Amino acid sequence: MTTAAQETRKILMDHEFLSTPATVGIARRAAVRALVVWGLSERQAEDFELVVSELVTNAVAQARHKRIRVRICEEVVNTLTVEVWDSVRASPRCKSLELDAENGRGLFIVERLAAHAGWRLAGEGKWVFAVLEVRPYA
User: Fold this and answer.
1) What pTM was estimated for this model as a whole?
2) According to a count of CB atoms within 10 Å of the terminal CB, is the N or C end of the chain lower?
């Protein structure tokens, strides 16, 4: 059974990837292509590119050499949702906000760029998501 929200959801991208470090760049490029085809300029896609990169990086670190899934969809007018699924049910956490830390700030960056971010359990894993506003063309 589908809900009204599922029926109105416009999926721009829905890909499964092997969870390896190379996947981060591949997923980022695929997301930008999908967003540009959908109608965003490359400049408008920059925040989405960073969010995809951070969420996929986290998923790769959690679910090394397993499958992950990356989806971008429009559920609400003037917003797009970036979702990344991995097979680890543990909640995502910000590791460090130290200025000299070399990693651990990805979720902090995602939360600053997103209108809303979070995660939910799903099947054998979890979805981590960020909802970003899409500004009309200037």
Assistant:
1) 0.87
2) N
